[in-house]
Amino acid sequence: MKCNICSNSEGVHICNVNRTYGKGEELLVIENVPIISCPHSGESYMTAETLQKIEQVKLKCKIFAVARFVDVVSLNEDNAAISL
Ligand SMILES: [Zn+2]
Q1: Burial group, residue 38, by CB count within 10 angstroms (0-12, 13-18, 19+)
Q2: Number of domains, the chain
Q3: What pLDDT, on the 0 to 100 scale, is given for residue 84?
Q4: How many whole angstroms from 2 Cα to the centroid of ligand 1?
């Protein structure tokens, strides 16, 4: 696989990550988003195809989404209970 940015092909790999969009009640989590990482240019990016899929999912998330109960932690001031 070749990096789209610097054309290097050594060590270029795909990581599947979770991405979140929106917030609060409208929070949408998309799992297994393939991110291409290039150690040469240090870039991490999504392919145009992946970006298109994400746009589709965001438009039609009610069709694709499965409601799940998950634990969500917010690292803001309201969460002073979290101490290091
Ligand atoms: Zn690169």
Answers
A1: buried
A2: 1
A3: 66
A4: 8
